[in-house]
UniProtKB/TrEMBL annotation:
It comes from Sphingopyxis lindanitolerans. GO terms for cellular component: plasma membrane. The chain crosses the membrane at residues 201-224. This is Flagellar motor stator protein MotA. Belongs to the MotA family. The keyword Calcium does not apply. InterPro entries: Flag_MotA_CS (IPR000540), Flagellar_motor_stator_MotA (IPR022522), MotA-like (IPR047055), MotA_ExbB_proton_chnl (IPR002898), MotA_N (IPR046786). Residues 141-239 form the MotA/TolQ/ExbB proton channel domain. It comes from the Bacteria.
Length: 287
């Protein structure tokens, strides 16, 4: 909702402010489609040149995140703590073998099936299952620090790939002012070809050419740049739940008491999504 409001405010205040101060919008609106065709075409072409099909698909997904916002809310973080805590408690009380069916077939696991939102996130499910599989096959003899290193590498790799849409948008934002200049130069070339026209016609043509520069800068700093920032913020927010998983598993492997394990994970959650200590323990008692 807020991105849409921001776009409306941007357009109204930029063009409305121009008109309010005596500017004539007619030449701007007349030139806008042609300049947008050149700038937009150059932008799309550069994206195709510099990215693979998978990267372009991810870029479209990044734009979707700008408008959808973070995927995980407070209840999802509570569910994540309950899910991993249940698995770690089972491993501690019943042994690693008891957990094996759940991590080998998570979609068939009655534990995972209690949390359908989390089960849809393949990255989260693989992070849990792959890490616990290491513990199971080692019969619980792994050094927790070694497990933490493995999880850190997995999280670093995921973050690198997850941020590509935001980086692509930022690269596009950086290029748009120059692409606007390209459109403006073409407009000047067109004007020079009509140098024998009356001054009023030449003035309108030069004004149309300058719309290209204006549009490139506006798109870069008013739309695409903020889109990139917003996409990065949302992606970073969505990856925070993986760090919650890591805190729960590592603290449990260190043999800390369950209240400390839960607090280690809960305290690392953003305050807006952080479940209370009582909510977590009420959820644990209900299982």
């Amino acid at each position: 909702m807020f991105p849409v409001i921001g776009i409306v405010v941007l357009i109204l205040l930029v063009f409305g402010g121009f008109a309010f101060t005596g500017g004539n919008l007619t030449p701007v609106l007349h030139a806008l489609p042609h300049e947008m065709l050149i700038i937009g075409g150059a932008a799309i072409g550069s994206l195709i040149i510099g990215n693979s099909g998978a990267d372009l698909k991810a870029l479209a997904g990044g734009l979707g995140k700008v408008f959808k916002g973070p995927a995980y809310k407070k209840q999802d973080y509570l569910d994540c703590i309950l899910l991993v805590s249940t698995l770690m408690k089972m491993m501690r009380t019943e042994g690693p073998v008891a957990v094996e069916p759940h991590i080998e077939e998570p979609k068939s696991s009655p534990i995972f099936q209690q949390y359908p939102t989390l089960l849809k996130d393949d990255t989260l499910v693989h992070l849990i299952c792959d890490t616990l599989r290491l513990v199971v096959v080692s019969s619980g003899t792994l050094d927790p620090h070694a497990v933490e290193d493995v999880m850190d590498n997995a999280l670093k790799n995921h973050r690198h790939h997850a941020l590509k849409p935001a980086e692509g948008l930022q690269s596009l934002a950086d290029a748009l002012p120059a692409l606007g200049i390209v459109a403006a130069v073409l407009g000047v070339v067109k004007t020079m070809g009509s140098i024998d026209k009356p001054p009023e016609i030449l003035g309108a043509m030069i004004g149309s050419a300058l719309v290209g520069t204006f549009l490139g800068v506006l798109l870069a700093y008013g739309l695409v740049g903020p889109f990139a920032t917003r996409a990065k913020t949302v992606i970073e927010s969505d990856t925070a739940i993986y760090h919650t998983v890591k805190q729960l598993i590592i603290a449990s492997l260190h043999g800390h008491p369950q209240p400390l394990v839960i607090e280690a994970a809960r305290s690392g959650v953003d305050h807006g999504n952080q479940p209370s200590f009582a909510e977590v323990f009420d959820g644990m008692r209900g299982r």
